[in-house]
Amino acid sequence: MSIAERGTEALREHVATQLRRARERSVVLTDAVDDDDLVRQHSKLMSPLVWDLAHIGNQEELWLVRDVGGREPVREDIDNLYDAFQHPRADRPALPLLDPAQARGYVREVRDKVFDVLEGSRLEGRRLETDGFAFGMIVQHEQQHDETMLATHQLRRGAPVLHAPAPPAGRPLPVAEVLVPEGPFAMGTSIEAWALDNERPAHDVHVDAFFIDTAPVTNAAYEAFIAAGGYDDPRWWSEVGWAYRVKADLTAPRFWVRDGAGWLRDRFGHVEPIPPDEPVVHVCFHEALAYATWAGRRLPTEAEWEKAARFDPATGRSRRFPWGDEDPGPEHANLGQRHLSPAPVGAYPAGASPLGVHQLVGDVWEWLDSDFHGYPGFEAFPYREYSEVFFGGDYKMLRGGSFGTDPAAVRATFRNWDHPIRRQIFAGFRCARDARAEELA
Ligand code: AVJ
Ligand code: FE
Hints:
The chain has 441 residues and is an alpha+beta fold. Helices cover 29% and strands 14% of the residues. The longest helix has 24 residues, at 8-31.
């Protein structure tokens, strides 16, 4: 059910449930390791887990306790420490951070006040409170950091501490690619209550006919690119991509380890054979683009991806999700850290789009050949630092969420972005190609 269709009390209950679910995840991810591990920096790319935890609490305090609730600050003195714009990740371990016990106490104290604020909010009136937007924003913020913390776990060395059942089995798909017809579709949203500013407003975009793969590129397909010498041939790489490939000495996806003539992967501390039918993960944008070029194909644009994910040819309408308007369930998509890996191709037939494109949502974020810009009519809300300060050419877009993304923090309109060199995120890709005139007859 959409947020706006709920009555006020049902919405209040929904907010409370979502807040609790997010906190359960944060607790699992931070209770899984000891205090020494929580304060350590596992990679220069990441914050110590204890920073993420207190930062989650601080954002919640700023928006829900102080702004929505109009209450006195809990810990105004620590705002600066947990402001992501004040301190780059690499510098965070050296800050006088709250220790693990203090951080846990802080987020609990903030959360108690938030439940009180939630009781008193009309969930309408001010834009920030209408449909519980600020609560939804904070739920998504915590879940986004939970995915970031999961990426920190992947970078952490030592014995495995996280456990989850294997994803469902795959099955062969009837076709490898489908035609997305030429024409306009409604991109973005003006009606999804918890959509963030960069997803707004809905606007028509014309998309030429193109073919898109029904599944993300698999480990087996990617290994063929490696075996064919793809990493040694600058023809497949963009100029900046090749320069980075050389400088960083890339030879395979991150977390792949050589095993004789083949490869293994290190997944949250388990060193294991690489499942051939799972989407490849932990490649950067440059690797995705090089693969696509080698394969005689290209990456989709952001508009193409969203049209493939939302366009219903029967009605011409854009759906909330590939499978329809229902919120994601376990049958639709590999989301929410239920499984700690992507699922093999074909594992979610109920999640396919009307055109027959599978696994657009869940499994792996998909790199796209688009930069981050605001849609026509974009308006920063409620703060410029969520999206607007990242607009421009420095980032590439990612869509669809991964096995590490919570359903609350992904939609078919949800936009993610990162530097094109990043590999620690749970990102893969799928390929597309232009349609030839004779294929449209
Ligand atoms: C939208 C995932 C790029 O993690 O940097 C978290 C989300 N913004 N805290 C990020 C975010 C502020 C953001 N991404
Ligand atoms: Fe944040």
